[in-house]
Design a protein that fits this description.
This protein is mainly alpha-helical. It has one domain: Butyryl-CoA Dehydrogenase, subunit A, domain 3 (Up-down Bundle). Helices cover 64% and strands 11% of the residues. The protein has four helices and three strands. A hairpin with a 6-residue loop joins β1 and β2. The radius of gyration is 18 Å and the shape is elongated.
């Protein structure tokens, strides 16, 4: 049902993903190729189309997984796939960070690092529910 603990983890993952559009993952100086001048940039999810699409997909998949409580196997599959996509998104952040001359992680990067953790916690809770239902069916 909706009041299960994995619903909270999935909702927090969607909320933290939405926060990546407001808070920067890293900030630093990037050399402008045309003017040859360093620019200070705070890199958020909406500054790159690939990262933005992945962030929207993570948020939507997390919210959809909340309401799939009747089909726990599919909910588990979506949650684990979303966790994998969030790890890929973090790798892309670091890939784009290498294009900067000087860059440092910001406090907002904690949101991105927390997303796969929250999704794996949700997957663990879904697995526990599935195991509990199988045990109850076995006892009948």
């Amino acid at each position: 049902m909706i009041q299960r603990i994995q619903s909270i983890w999935l909702f927090l993952a969607a909320l933290f993903t939405a926060a990546t559009f407001k808070f920067s993952f890293f900030s630093g100086n990037k050399l402008n190729a045309t003017t040859n001048v360093k620019e200070w940039i705070e890199f958020i999810a909406s500054q790159n189309s690939i990262i933005m699409i992945l962030a929207v997909a993570i948020a939507i998949a997390s919210l959809i997984a909340i309401f799939m409580y009747k089909d726990r196997k599919r909910q588990m599959l979506i949650t684990l796939f979303t966790a994998t996509v969030s790890i890929i998104q973090i790798a892309l952040y670091f890939n784009f960070k290498s294009a900067f001359t000087e860059a440092s992680l910001n406090l907002g990067s904690l949101f991105s690092f927390a997303i796969p953790v929250l999704l794996f916690l949700a997957a663990k809770a879904i697995y526990t529910d599935e195991k509990m239902v199988k045990n109850a069916d076995r006892l009948r």
